[in-house]
Structure formats: C-alpha cells, structure tokens
Design brief:
Order of helices and strands: HHEHEHEHEHEEHEEE
Structural class: alpha/beta
Number of strands: 9
Radius of gyration: 17 Å
Oligomer: single chain
Length: 206
C-alpha cells in the first residue's frame, strides 16, 4: 500500500519542537529541532570531549539528556572531564549510560519520560548488541534515528585528515542536520540546517 501524501497547506501548518538556543550556541547552530542526528568530529586532543560535555550541560536547559561514554567508560579520565565541565550542576537532567549498545538504547528509549537527547561517544565504538564486534552500518544508523523521530542523537566521531573517519561517520555526516568540526579548541559549523554559521572558541581543558 502506498504511503499517503500530505498537502502543502498541512506541511506549512505543522509545528516542530525546537530548542531556543541563545548567544554563542545560536551563532554556532541556530535554532535546532529536537530530532534527527548531529555529528561532532575531530582529532584526538583537539577539544571534542570538552565541547561535547559543555554542549551536554547546555542542552539540559531544554531537554533531558543521556551520555554514553563508549570510548572512555566510567574511568578517571572521563571523571576529570565531567568535573571540568561541571556536570554536577546539571546532574538531575543527565543519565550516564556506560557500555550501552543499540539494543540497550532501544530498551531505554521506548520508556515514558526517557531522555530526549542522546550523546554517543564515540560513534566508532557503538555496536548493535553486546556480543557483536561489528561496527554499525549506515542502514542500522538510519533505522535507529527513524525508530525515535522525537529524539535527537548526537554522535561524536574520530577524524582523519580533518574529515569524519570511516564509512559510517561519512554516512552520519550526510544524514545529519548539524555537523561540527573541532580543531585546536575551536568549533567550526561545517553544516547546520538551522542557520548557524559562526565558529566557537573553547577554553582548553587543564
């Protein structure tokens, strides 16, 4: 059975859930919808984690969030980064999900009042199930996004030669509404469908 079409009039009357960013975040990203996916990418030691955790804390002003530290886990290095970002001040709005797979995410996100924004750090470590060693495919990434149309997934990715590293990261880049490149503690808006176009300078971590 073919899918029904919608009229232009219905499209123009449709309401979207947005986050009313201000100041440097509005300059960087614009006024984003809380759905789909974003990509934050950069090399090691360039400020990806610093920016991701600062963004996590900022978005808790608007939505409940979850952070999945797949690369570092709940280790001392991530603890120090969380302290640096002062995540304690927003702790009631953040769930920390360690070693979660897509299967775990599906189980959590179907629950009422589950987090609306999910950070996954790093994309290259995300698996479908705990007994799987294969990286996600582009199809599985799109399936995850489409399964939760009222959630926003923010993927953090490695970079190679200043580009997202690997075929999956490239697919996420093209499928995302916002793509941010972090280098030398400066965030560059490579793509934003919400109007952002001004870079953001970060304070290097200690």
């Amino acid at each position: 059975m073919p899918k029904p079409a919608i009229s232009i009039e219905k499209l123009l009357k449709k309401k979207f859930i947005v986050m009313n960013f201000e100041n440097e975040y509005k300059d960087l990203i614009g006024t984003p919808e809380c759905s789909g996916s974003w990509l934050i990418y950069g090399g090691s030691g360039e400020g990806k984690t610093t920016f991701s955790l600062e963004t996590l804390k900022y978005i808790t002003r608007f939505k409940k969030c979850a952070y999945i530290p797949l690369e570092e886990g709940a280790k001392m290095t991530f603890q120090e980064a969380a302290k640096e970002a002062n995540l304690r001040s927003a702790s009631s709005r953040i769930k920390l999900w360690v070693d979660y797979t897509v299967e775990d995410l599906n189980n959590e996100l179907v629950k009422p009042r589950s987090p609306e924004v999910i950070f996954i750090d790093s994309l290259q470590y995300l698996k479908m199930k705990s007994d799987s060693y294969n990286q996600l495919t582009a199809f599985e990434y799109k399936s995850l996004i489409n399964s939760f149309p009222k959630k926003l997934f923010i993927f953090i990715s490695h970079a190679k030669n200043n580009e997202p590293k690997g075929a999956l990261a490239e697919a996420v880049y093209f499928g995302s509404d916002v793509c941010l490149f972090v280098k030398d503690f400066c965030v560059y808006p490579k793509k934003s469908r919400y109007g952002g176009k001004k870079s953001m300078h970060l304070k290097p971590s200690k």
